[in-house]
Amino acid sequence: MHAAAPLRAAQAGVHRQALLLPTALAAWLACCSSASAQTPPPAAPAALPEVTVTSSGLSLGATEMTTPVSVLEGDTLVRQRAATLGETLESEPGVQATHFGAGASRPIVRGMDGPRVQIVSDGAELHDASTVSPDHAVASEPLLARQIEVLRGPSALVHSAGAVGGVVNVLDGRVPTQRPAKAVEGSAELRAASAAGEGAAAFELTTGAGPLVLHAEGARRSAGDYRVGKGWSPEGSMLRRVPGSFSRGDTGSVGLSWVGDAGYLGLAFTRQTARYGLPGHQHGLEHCHTHGSQLHCGVHATPLVDKAEDDHDHDHSDVPVVDLLSERVDLRGEWRRPAPGIAALRLRAGSTDYRHDELEGGVAATTFRNRAHDLRLELQHEPIAGLRGLVGVHTVQRRFRADGEEAYVLPTETRRTGVFWLEEYRWQQWRFEAALRHDQQTSEEIESRTRRSHSGTSASLGAVWNFTPGWALATSWTRAHRAPTAEELYARGLHLATRTYERGDANLRSEVSNNFDIGLRKTAGDTTFAVSAFRNRIGRYIYGRTLDVVDGLQLLQYSQQDAVFTGLEGQVRQRLNRHWGVDWGVGLFGDVVRARLADGSALPRIAPARLGVRLDGEWGAWQGQVEWVQVSSQRRVAALETATPGYGMLNAGLAWRGQWQGTPWQVYLKGQNLTNRLAYAHTSYIKTDAPLRGRNLVAGVRVDF
């Protein structure tokens, strides 16, 4: 593989950093607790502002959740947003990204990705092809997000039993839910970045007349091939940019709602296009096929090394390009107190027509299509004997097919229905939560009429104990079933983007996950923190088992074996005294996850441990921060997987908020990888062909009106 020598050279001594996270967090908490004990607490300690988590089902505050949750909103979201959802969230504890060039990057939560992390838009399931393969983009534009919530662990059964990693909820304003306070409300934002010559713009407008409210929004971005850190030399070349890492995209949406005193009902149409390259694509393997459990590439195959060297001299015409089009219609509504005993009725329905062509030489070599319909109904009841909760039903119909040279997924139709029930009970300083869900799924391979059905009942229990003001101890247990996806059941063919030949197994059974989570958090005073530990034992875990490797091409057989995921994640911030008129704070954050199969072997592409320290300050209208993030090496690798060296990154940011004639606006500047470090993402299929970005300066301006 490319850059193998630099990989090995950088690994020595770095793997010990994985042990630093739990030790550092424990030492920090002990230090902060000692300092608090020696210093009298203030009369009224400042508390973190409460944030509503809409994906909780009952619109709970973040401090009331039984499982860890991250909520990005306001200025924090504005400055953290990136071109993809994975990049936007990857700095959150417990969250990584798949990293497939600049056009596709999906969140990885607690070591799990793909269908084990469900992405929803205001509670409605997104339907694209990103769960099929990491080179497929998520059909969501971060620039248009108003709030992003990350629920870790499988306890969010109101969304899915299969999301054993977690749920990512992207809140948008495409369907208006309330009348604007002014005749016209909205925002506009411009930003630019240096590493890829990126430019982006976004806007949103909302206006109303009586009960009718109209909303329109749009975003456009364009970026060339991005630069990587110093020292990258694939096959002896001195390339500074990753060939085929360019990305362009447009998103537009218009929505109309009827908004009354008792609720709303609205409809929106969203159209998204994208065009991005697939770095690391290797030719000469198109004729590879299987003989039993072995690969055979025949006399037509060209050795990878020779062809790879030649590819670096080609332009974009030799790089496969994804040409994506997604059109979606959303129907959303809420009726508050329609009858005695009913607090609210909620509706989410959507219809998605998604396709993307993988172009080679300007010609569509493979086409992926996904047509899906989903419907979600919830009924929230008034408190009964102290119990507050909801019941609901969620149905999905999905027709997926691929045509062309790399049609490794046979045409399939999947029907899924789930019914769920959630209740909470509060007693003194305690909050208890219980959820129950039953799912039925049928997946059919259309050509052979092969059909498989799976069903399962999932349950979760959780509790939060606010044992003293500003402190909370939370714990949860979840037993969840995940039915295999159509791709895991029926895949059969070559997938050059990930250099795999994939074979499904129509006899796969449902996974059974038993997850235990415990966390401690403090949300008031000069010292605030949140620390969580989890252990997830998954029976019949479905994974791609490598049977053979030829010229870097892997033969993957979807198989089942018990697996265990164990991890720790947390962050802590200490407010310091004011100096030079600046309100200072220093923080520590990090995460670590270990994943192994029952036979003791490691799972592939598990993110290494991270540990970071951050110094932030606020003075008047100015805000700033600087941080160092250390990522350890990853030597716990699966068979035929290469280890990845560790690296450290220096990041910084500065923002200023002001007003012009009563209109608020802000200017921000952030620097990423300021030391221009060469870094590889172990979670990526193409880590050595597409390293992480080098030094990158991002500047932006935003106006709210």
> Which strand-content bin applies to the residues?
over 45%
Radius of gyration: 25 Å
CATH superfamily descriptor = TonB-dependent receptor, beta-barrel domain
Helix proportion range: under 10%
The mean pLDDT is 88
Element layout with pairings:
Blueprint: H1 4-9, H2 20-38, E1 52-53, E2 60-61, E3 69-73, H3 74-80, H4 85-89, E4 95-97, E5 107-109, E6 117-121, E7 124-125, E8 147-152, E9 166-171, E10 184-193, E11 198-209, E12 212-223, E13 247-260, E14 263-277, E15 289-291, E16 294-296, H5 304-311, E17 321-339, E18 342-360, E19 363-384, E20 387-404, E21 412-427, E22 430-445, E23 450-468, E24 471-482, H6 486-490, E25 492-495, E26 500-503, E27 511-522, E28 527-550, E29 553-575, E30 583-597, E31 610-619, E32 622-631, E33 647-660, E34 663-672, E35 696-704
Subcellular location: Cell outer membrane
Organism: Acidovorax lacteus
Family: Belongs to the TonB-dependent receptor family.
Q: Concise description?
A:
This protein is 7% helix and 54% strand.
Q: How does this model look, in words?
A:
Belongs to the TonB-dependent receptor family. Residues 64-167 form the TonB-dependent receptor plug domain. Its main location: membrane. The chain has a single domain, classed as Beta Barrel (Maltoporin, Chain A), CATH 2.40.170. 7% of the residues lie in helices and 54% in strands. The strands form five sheets. It has a 22-stranded antiparallel barrel. The protein is globular and about 70 Å long. The relative contact order is 0.15.
